[in-house]
Amino acid sequence: MATVPGFPAWAGAGTADALCFVGSWFFTTAALMQLLLTERADRPSPAERSSAAVQFAGTLLFNLGTGAAVWAHAVTAERRYVWAPDATGSLAFLLSGVLGMIAVAATVGLFEPRSREWLTAAINLVGCVAFGVSAVAAFVRVTGITSDERLANLGTFLGALCFLVAALVALPRRLSRPPG
User: Fold this and answer.
1) What is the distance between the alpha carbons of residues 11 and 133, in angstroms, rounded to a whole number?
2) Are the C-beta atoms of residues 37 and 46 closer than 8 Å to each other?
3) Do residues 104 and 117 lie in contact, with contact meaning Cβ atoms separated by under 8 Å?
4) Considering all CA atoms of the chain, what is the largest pairwise distance in Å, rounded to the nearest integer?
């Protein structure tokens, strides 16, 4: 919600930053669940394990970045501290997305868009790229001004949207219709 185009201008940067910070913890919780599920899986591949672990680490960096953004909003001179954890977390997401695609390609094939597993990994990778674009656009210049605030917010919004769509695609299908 915080990065929906137009929302930060309407609600203010402080509100958007606070919402991103709260949302980052949901993101981290989901990544932790994925990591735990991967560890409980029957013989997860090294790429699967690495992907989940790197994604979890990236979410922790995102927590740090969003927390720094809330703090930096109060202390404008310190806005430069926001970018490094955001960019590092985005690199972790990119690595996680690539490892995820490697793991899926090893089991279903290099290009299998009709496979739910492949589609999930591909959508996640697109989300990772969107977060990377967001991080580049969020670079804080010496003047304290963000390089491209709209692109940074749009990249974050699209990345989160891709992660949501991928999670929905990955949900198990019902095996039978409920009575009724």
Assistant:
1) 23
2) no
3) yes
4) 63
Prediction pTM value: 0.80
DSSP state of 77: G
Q: Sign (positive/negative) of CA torsion 127, 133, 137, 139?
A: positive
How far apart CA 130 and CA 166 sit, in angstroms, is 14
DSSP 8-state class, residue 140: B
Measured between alpha carbons, how far is 45 from 62 in angstroms, rounded to an integer? 26
Report the alpha-carbon distance of residue 161 to residue 167 in Å, rounded.
Answer: 10
| Interatomic CA distance for residues 173 and 169, integer angstroms | 9
What is the distance in angstroms between the CA of the first residue and the CA of the last residue of the chain?
Answer: 36
Asked whether the beta carbons of 47 and 99 are under 8 A apart, the reply is yes
CB 128 within 8 A of CB 103: no
**What does the pLDDT look like over 22-68, one tens digit per residue?**
888 988 998 899 899 998 988 899 999 999 999 999 999 888 888 87
Q: Name the strand (E) or helix (H) holding 90.
A: helix 80-108
